[in-house]
C-alpha cells in the first residue's frame, strides 16, 4: 500500500536519511520517497499506517497529515 505523510521538521539530507532509516527498520523492503521542499514522504509498504507514523514520530519528526492509497510520485532523495 502507498501512504503519503506530511512531515514537519525535516530540513536536510540527514533528516531524509533518518526518516528513511526509521521506516526501513520496520520494513526493509519499503520504498521511501522524501521531498524536503514540500515535507512529503511517500512510502510503499505492507506495514500498517500507524506503525510507519510511529517510526517517523520516534525519529523526532512530526506527522501532520496522512493519506492512504495515493499514487507514488515525487523525488527520491
UniProtKB/TrEMBL annotation:
* Molecular functions per Gene Ontology: metal ion binding
Keyword set, alphabetical order: Metal-binding
Q: Quote any Pfam family the record assigns.
A: HMA
Describe the location of the HMA domain by residue ranges.
1-64
Q: What domain of life does the UniProt record list for this protein's source? A: Bacteria
Give TM segment ranges.
Answer: none
What's the protein here called?
A: HMA domain-containing protein
Amino acid at each position: 500500500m502507498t501512504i503519503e505523510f506530511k512531515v514537519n521538521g525535516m530540513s536536510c539530507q540527514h533528516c531524509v536519511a533518518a526518516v528513511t532509516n526509521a521506516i526501513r527498520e520496520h520494513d526493509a523492503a519499503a520504498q521511501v520517497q522524501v521531498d524536503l521542499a514540500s515535507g512529503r514522504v511517500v512510502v510503499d509498504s505492507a506495514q500498517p499506517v500507524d506503525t510507519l507514523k510511529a517510526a517517523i514520530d520516534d525519529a523526532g519528526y512530526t506527522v501532520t497529515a496522512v493519506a492512504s492509497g495515493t499514487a507514488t510520485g515525487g523525488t527520491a532523495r
